[in-house]
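Dear colleague,

Thank you for sharing your sequence with our group. We've completed the structure prediction you requested, and as agreed, I am returning the results in plain text so they can be pasted directly into your records. Please verify that the sequence below matches your submission; if there's any discrepancy, let me know and we will rerun it promptly.
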Amino acid sequence: MTSKGSQEEYDYLYKIVLIGDSGVGKSNLLSRFTRNEFSLETKSTIGVEFATRTIQTEGKTIKAQIYYYYQQQQQQQQQQQQQQQQQQQQQQQQQQQQQQQQQQQQQQQQQQQQQQQQQQQQQQQRHEQRKQDYYRGAVGALLVYDIAKQATYKSVERWILELRENADRNIEIMLVGNKSDLRHLREVSTDEAKEFSEKHKLTFIETSALDSSNVELAFQNILTQIYHIMSRPSHSTGPQTTIDSNTETIILPTPTDPPAAKSGCC
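Please find the predicted structure tokens below.
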């Protein structure tokens, strides 16, 4: 598929998503690959950032659109749900301790509980819609964990399940152990992650967005793998076309495409 009438031409356009727990370095992997930049600042805006970069593979021009979803919103929702559950438990304890509460107070509490349940359901529905929008059209995923934080590695199976539930069943997945520069603080061994990847039929690599180790190789490898799959005879049509823009932030949900911008970094 060749872009026509745009500021740059390409043969294939692939959407890649970055997933994993907060703090594992997804944003810096994105900025390191597309702009060769690294920042110690964390993202506070809620939404989706994406950037583009064009590479050459086996004589073909491949344009990658790489998406990174800020997880703060999901965590805030989980915290709100936990707080609401704690409030409900406290209310129930108060009801047990205060058997002589008036009927009016009980009715008010029931109404509050119903409202809280409705809010939780609405939040969950919005979150599910955001997940579907995020994964739609993605042909590749980098599942990132922090080699110095075992908890982020333990979350990998949950992220795989989310991928299986929301993304295309044939999506190419690469497990990425980021922050390899923190080898002196390592909590996840390379052999353990390799064994896990083989078991779940994932590709695997360790990277460091800080010193740029293997970042280029990780993206090059997954894009080449996707190209080999998508160029097979069974994939006669081109890849899903996504938004064409340079680095940009989108506040979800956003049903319309952003305006076209200058071509991505090379």
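Summary note from our side: The helical segments are 26-35, 72-97, 103-135, 150-154, 156-166, 190-199, 215-230.

Kind regards,
the structure core
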